[in-house]
Amino acid sequence: MASSHQKDINLLLIGKTGNGKSALGNSILRTVLFVSTSSTTSVTTSIAEAHTDFNGRRINVVDGPGVGDTRVDNELATVLVLEAMNEAIRSSPNGYNALLLVVRFGRFSNEDKDTVDFLKKLFGVESVKQNCILVITHGDDFESEESGEGFEEWCAAQQGVFQELLQECHHRAVLFNNKTKDKSTQDRQLKALIEMVDQLDNVYTDEHFSKAIPGRIHLMIEARRPIISFETSFEIQKITEKLERLHFNGNPANRTKNLDEIFMEALELQDLLDAQDAQTGLLENEKTEVKILLNEITSKYTL
């Protein structure tokens, strides 16, 4: 194990937009190379990469895209994140020694929980347990509190979903003050992070990423569902209107032919939904609506 600690360290920064992810990268690099969301109004569509040397070791840092960026619509945001994470995996052929999950000190909202769930689908359900280190940013806010308790005591006192997250990543958590200019503090917190990375000893590789493909399919369908639901309702309405306009004209053959055409339209819609659902079960409500429509069309044959 000791020899492995002399190797390069590859780190991937992940987390919700606005939690200080890029600032953490700059703290690790000990220089400003990554642009934070507070300094730009543009949406990052790719990763940022940089490296530094510390205590005789090369540290390679990849800043992934922030999750939950409200400046873009949900489907586009999901596509951008997935594309950027694909790029991040390709950029590190030897894998990542740790996924640094960045959380802001003092608040862990439902949005943060949703972000963790999103990342677990993206990287795999075991990724937090096996590969993540929780990095609590805004350590300056922690230091300014007058409780007198240490960081480990603070972690132990947390409850609810944040405590569950701590337990899931086996309490691998470090505190970072990204604002400090004190070199000894910068070196101390970076050293603590590296020690935790070395203890982790689980490399996240392209193989792990490939195994998580079903989760990423799930994310894309979730993101597209509002559009799919709207389009399905629109098509159902069109077919229903055709059905209502169908009157018995005294020629049973024509009526049956028209019903057959309408029935085939509904079947095609059902097949499309099955394909879009990709066996995830996310579109069950929409599929049920089409089944009801098919039953209604079938009942017209007996009139």
Automatic annotation (TrEMBL):
Instruction: Give the matching SUPFAM superfamilies.
Output: P-loop containing nucleoside triphosphate hydrolases
Q: Where is the signal peptide?
A: none
**Any idea which GO molecular function terms this record carries?**
GTP binding
Q: Which Pfam families match?
A: AIG1 (PF04548)
Q: Domain named AIG1-type G: which ranges?
A: 6-213
UniProt keyword annotations, A-Z: GTP-binding, Nucleotide-binding
Q: Which domain of life is it from?
A: Eukaryota
Any keyword GTP-binding?
A: yes
Keyword Lipid biosynthesis on entry: no
PROSITE patterns on file: G_AIG1
Q: Which family does it belong to?
A: Belongs to the TRAFAC class TrmE-Era-EngA-EngB-Septin-like GTPase superfamily. AIG1/Toc34/Toc159-like paraseptin GTPase family. IAN subfamily.
| Name by which UniProt lists this protein | GTPase IMAP family member 7-like
Q: Please report the organism this UniProt entry assigns to the protein.
A: Biomphalaria glabrata
Q: What is the lineage of its organism?
A: Eukaryota, Metazoa, Spiralia, Lophotrochozoa, Mollusca
